[in-house]
Structure formats: structure tokens, C-alpha cells
Amino acid sequence: IRYIPDMKFNNRENEKVYTDDGRTVWLSRSPAVAVVIVATINFEDPRVLTVIRGSGVNNTGKTCLPCGYLDWDESGPEGAMRELYEETNINLTEMLEVSDSYSLYWGEPWYINTNPAEDDLQNITLYYGVHVNFKSEEELPKLSGENAAPNEVESVFWSPRREVGLYDWAFNHEKRIEKFYSWVNL
């Protein structure tokens, strides 16, 4: 083993809490999921599924992708599907069934962010994505934040690609959107 002198680390120990029943619970970085869905009509005019954050969450009024924390015993893909449904009312399976074609990046994340400085949070974020094509505008899923927690979602809409840079984004999601566009070659 080679010695590397003057190694410096930028970490701090995770905090712990002792419960009344004698257990020790470690407070560590939270895994989160985010979903990029790009929809096209006849493979033209790409638009991204966009959420405006409500008054009950941090970054109120900012724009973001559908996102949230994994629940206990939930896989990344399951959490991504749940957050997508809660914040936008999209049932992924139903959306894919009505689509003309799609490319699904769901079994494993297409991108993972582990850098806390990048999102100004201690999250580890798993990014899932779909490029879905429809034959007509009418086939786009109807959007709603009705399944979200109270005041979590102010609004949800399909943002044309050319307008992505006009919004005040939370969590650097605009960078992930552009990365996804490049990744799927749109």
C-alpha cells in the first residue's frame, strides 16, 4: 500500500439520535430521486415536464423536475414513479401505453449526483428519465398536482425546450435537463 501524504478530507461524522426505546438512529445524507420527462410530438418541439414548487416546501416558487425523497423500503425506480404520480398525476405505465414510442431510462438512473455542493443540499440524487413521443398534442398526459402533499406543488406544465433557461430553477435541475437532452441526442 502506497502512503499518500497530507490527505485531507472534507467530511464530518453523521449525527446520531438515541430513541426512547434504546435504538440509535443515524442521520445521514438523504437519497432523493428526480425525473426528467421530455415529450415530443412527431419527434419535434421537445418539452420537459416542469413543476413550480408550492409554499409548503423549500425553494418555494422555484421551478424543478418532479422530485423527492425515497421512502423506507422503496427502490429508486419505485420512488421516481411515486414522485412523478404525486407531483404531476402521471401514471408512467399508462403514459407509455398511449405513446407512439419511447426511450425509457428507468431500470438504473441515467445520472447520479453525489456532490452536495452541486445542489446546495446533502442529497444523493438518482435521476431517471423518459423521452416519449406522441402523435398529437391531445395525447400528452393531463397534468395536476392534486396527488401531492398540501402546498407541495403550485403548478405543473410542459415547458418548451427554448423556455427552460427563463425559469429560476431549484437544485440545478436546468443543468440536468440539458445533460439529458444531450444524453438522448435531442
Search tags:
186 residues; alpha+beta; eight-stranded mixed sheet; 10 strands; 19% helix; globular
Describe the largest sheet: 8 strands, mixed
Task: Give the distance, in angstroms, between the N- and C-terminal Cα atoms.
Answer: 46 Å
Number of contiguous helices: 4
Q: What is the chain-wise order of helices and strands?
A: EEEEEEHHEEHEEH
**Mean model confidence by pLDDT:** 91
Q: Name the poorly predicted regions.
A: none
Topology, number of strands: 10
Structural class: alpha+beta
Helix content class: 10-25%
**Form type:** globular
Radius of gyration: 19 Å
**How much strand content do the residues show?**
25-35%
How would you describe this protein?
The strands form two sheets. Strands 3, 4, 5, 6, 7, 8, 9 and 10 form an eight-stranded mixed β-sheet that branches. The protein has a two-stranded antiparallel sheet with strand order 1-2. It has 186 residues and is α+β, with helices and mostly antiparallel strands. The protein is globular and about 60 Å long. The mean pLDDT is 91. It has four helices and ten strands.
